[in-house]
Recover the amino acids of this structure.
């Protein structure tokens, strides 16, 4: 009796240990396929980020040149650091900033890039643009629709001119276009990619500061009027009303109301024959959150924000999900096995949304670390090597995870690291193709952030060509058996080694393992002596 009692308790304790191990003790791959309702017209896209909305980590030389002008005293205002496009324009002054940005707009993306994108098998380009492209008078702060909103941004029609040129190039080479309002008045998230960085803001300015809501609606109306109902000659297949609004830093009710008001404007402008898609970002809300939103079968949900008589089908609304594995310590510390499993699970979860609405992964990258220079912001280091916590007000008790080898020349990358990058790309290409309405890679090119640079990854054989030429994955998103077995064994070995060494695995397991092994030891003692 004592034997079976001890055996039963041992089994329970071992089961608890496996549960608590979570990502550290991998189980068999789940190859379950989600029914795909969008087997035709799959989005295979790439984003032209850093062009009409500049980002420091994509083109650091642009911001270095601006800072040099400021430091040399030739700028309009040299009393602050340049960390985003807002401060670039503010510090340099309008004319100097305009010269610098106009040169960038004319050179960063050219017609040949559109030709190359099509030849490489993509069918869509995502074009980010900031609200300031619609500024009409920089001296008085006049915008379209007779809205006055003061900011230092450069415009003079430069961005809209390039956008129109991009649409012509896309049409010439048979590419579809998804226009993305990447920066909103007051910033919708505090990220530098919105145009204006604020690392520590508890609440951001969009929909909060005076005139930000009014100006946003005017710009939405202009976008819908200009790019809807253009017939078969139009290359614009989607309009994303705002990129990455950060719900926790916004008034969420106000944000939801603005989404619905934008949709009402969209439908009032759209002819029955027009098939342009209304695109919303998930606002960093949980997967599945949007399933009953914008659904004519759930008017009780919509009714909280909008009473509309407009007829529509739920497939006219597409939800854009963004996914990266590098912006928390927990993600960065995970094994390659768990990283790949995360992608598969994420894609399958999106697949469950498709009965409610189309959904794409509109941003993803090849990054295994956050080491790219200025990825976290000008002057901000990486979490991976601990520099992030030395250059910000944020704190962690975790130790640095490793060295930033990804910033070395690709030729100097260890063979194993190259293989992991390729596996990570393939996991996303195959899983997103199999389970979602498609994908859009971020980004087409950078100056030196290789893991975020499609052209560089392709050059070094890390991005499949053709796009479904997989070495490690099947087209249904499953991992090839030999790869699965090898990575599973490595992950298990690493987990056991870390546990024996008492090394923190950086995912907040605390001392749970120690308590379990202590209980196990006590149980064995009781079984022996009693």
């Amino acid at each position: 009796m004592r034997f079976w009692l001890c055996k039963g308790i041992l089994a329970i304790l071992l089961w608890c240990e496996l549960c608590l191990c979570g990502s550290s003790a991998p189980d068999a791959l789940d190859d379950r396929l989600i029914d795909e309702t969008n087997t035709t017209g799959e989005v295979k896209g790439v984003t032209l980020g850093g062009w009409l909305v500049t980002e420091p980590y994509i083109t650091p030389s642009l911001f270095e040149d601006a800072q040099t002008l400021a430091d040399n005293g030739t700028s309009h205002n040299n009393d602050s650091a340049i960390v985003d496009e807002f401060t670039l324009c503010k510090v340099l002054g309008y004319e100097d900033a305009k010269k610098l940005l106009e040169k960038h707009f004319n050179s960063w993306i050219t017609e040949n890039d559109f030709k190359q994108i099509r030849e490489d098998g993509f069918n869509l380009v995502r074009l980010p643009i900031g609200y300031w492209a619609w500024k009409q008078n920089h001296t008085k702060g006049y915008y379209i629709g007779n809205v006055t909103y003061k900011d230092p941004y450069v415009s003079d029609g430069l961005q809209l001119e390039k956008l129109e040129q991009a649409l012509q190039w896309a049409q010439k080479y048979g590419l579809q276009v998804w226009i993305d309002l990447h920066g909103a008045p007051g910033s919708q998230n505090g990220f530098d990619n919105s145009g204006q960085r604020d690392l520590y803001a508890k609440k951001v300015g969009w929909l909060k500061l005076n005139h930000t809501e009014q100006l946003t609606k005017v710009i939405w109306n202009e976008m819908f009027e200009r790019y809807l109902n253009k017939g078969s000659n139009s290359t614009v297949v989607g309009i994303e009303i705002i990129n990455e609004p950060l719900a926790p830093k916004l008034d969420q009710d106000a944000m939801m109301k603005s989404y619905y008001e934008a949709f009402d404007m969209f439908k009032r402008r759209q002819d029955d024959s027009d098939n342009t898609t209304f695109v919303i970002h998930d606002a960093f809300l949980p997967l599945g959150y949007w399933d009953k939103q914008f659904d004519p079968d759930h008017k009780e949900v919509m009714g909280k924000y909008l009473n509309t008589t407009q007829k529509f089908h739920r497939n006219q609304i597409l939800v854009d999900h963004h996914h990266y594995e590098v912006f928390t310590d927990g993600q960065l510390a995970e094994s390659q096995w768990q990283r790949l499993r995360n992608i598969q699970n994420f894609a399958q979860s999106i697949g469950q949304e498709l009965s409610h609405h189309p959904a794409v992964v509109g941003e993803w990258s090849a990054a295994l670390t956050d080491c790219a220079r200025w990825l976290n912001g000008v002057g901000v280091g990486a979490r991976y090597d601990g520099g992030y916590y030395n250059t910000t007000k944020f704190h962690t008790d975790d130790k640095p995870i490793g060295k930033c080898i990804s910033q070395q020349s690709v030729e100097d990358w260890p063979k194993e690291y190259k293989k992991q990058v390729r596996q990570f790309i393939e996991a996303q290409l195959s899983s997103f193709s199999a389970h979602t309405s498609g994908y859009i890679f971020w980004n087409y090119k950078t100056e030196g952030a290789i893991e975020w640079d499609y052209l560089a990854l392709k050059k070094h054989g890390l991005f499949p060509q053709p796009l479904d030429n997989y070495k490690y994955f099947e087209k249904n998103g499953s991992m090839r058996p030999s790869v699965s077995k090898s990575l599973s064994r490595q992950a298990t070995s690493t987990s056991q080694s870390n546990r024996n060494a008492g090394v923190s695995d950086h995912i907040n397991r605390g001392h749970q393992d120690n308590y379990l092994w202590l209980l196990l030891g006590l149980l064995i003692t009781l079984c022996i002596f009693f």
User: Anything to note?
Assistant: The radius of gyration is 25 Å. The mean pLDDT is 87. Residues 30-508 form a domain with the TIM Barrel fold (CATH 3.20.20.80).
